[in-house]
Structures are given as C-alpha cells and as structure tokens.
Amino acid sequence: MIIKKGDVILVLSGKDRAKTGKVLSISSKKHKAIVEGLNIAKKHLRPSRAHPQGGIIKFPAPIDLSNLKIICPRCNKATRIAFKKSNKKTAKMRICKKCKEAIDG
C-alpha cells in the first residue's frame, strides 16, 4: 500500500480539500482510508436501550485513497511515492519522489 496507518496525508479534493490529518485506518478492499478529524459525517440515532437519549453522533467517514497524497516527514511536502528494494530478502521501502529519502524507518 502507498498509504499506511499513521501516515500524515493531504486531502486533494472534497469538502476538506487542502487539510492535513493522520490516517487512523485503511480498508484495502474498499480502497478507502479514515483520517483523524476530516470528512466528519453525522448519524441520527433513535432512542434505544443502548442510547436512551438518541441524538446525533459525529464520526469520521472514509475517504477514497485517490483523493489523498502523503506528506513526506523529511521535506514536509505532499509527494508521490516510489518503491525500492534494498536487499533481495527485505521488503520494499517507500521513497519520497521529491527528496529521495525513505519514508519508512
């Protein structure tokens, strides 16, 4: 995956355009991510035993991954990602296209 849990991202389109946030979770099958504090949706609840008052709940809704761009922790710019294998046995690393530094530790 290009974007992983814990990455800081920039939203490219939608009502939260040009805002940044931290990725809370990724759904690879649905190709969506939930970002902390962005794309807040409201859900109306009927009174029930679990919620006797009912009311309106706010929660972060998923955003499509195509509308997100990762922010490099080294150069602090929104960037594309390249992949590079350091050894034959190790997993591939994510590389910033702008500063050519590794994003993963």
Topology, element by element:
Blueprint: E1 8-11, E2 20-27, E3 32-35, E4 40-45, E5 55-60, E6 63-64, E7 68-71, E8 78-79, E9 81-85, E10 92-96
Antiparallel strand pairs: 1-2, 1-7, 2-3, 3-6, 4-5, 7-8, 9-10
List keywords for this structure.
about 100 residues; mainly beta; SH3 type barrels; 2 domains; two-stranded antiparallel sheet; about 0% helix; about 45% strand
Summarize the structure.
This protein has strands at residues 8-11, 20-27, 32-35, 40-45, 55-60, 63-64, 68-71, 78-79, 81-85, 92-96. By secondary structure, it is mainly beta.
What does this structure look like?
This protein has 105 residues and is mostly beta strands. The protein folds into 2 domains: 8-71, SH3 type barrels (Roll); 79-105, no CATH class. It is built from no helices and 10 strands. The chain has a 6-stranded antiparallel sheet with strand order 6-3-2-1-7-8, with no helix packed on it. The chain has a two-stranded antiparallel ribbon with strand order 4-5. A hairpin with a 6-residue loop joins strand 9 (81-85) and strand 10. The chain is elongated, with a radius of gyration of 17 Å.
Q: What structural class do helix, strand and pairing data support?
A: mainly beta
CATH fold assignment of the largest domain: SH3 type barrels
Q: Tell me, what is the CATH class of the largest domain?
A: Mainly Beta
Largest sheet: 6 strands, antiparallel
Across the major sheet, the strand order is: 6-3-2-1-7-8
The overall number of domains is 2
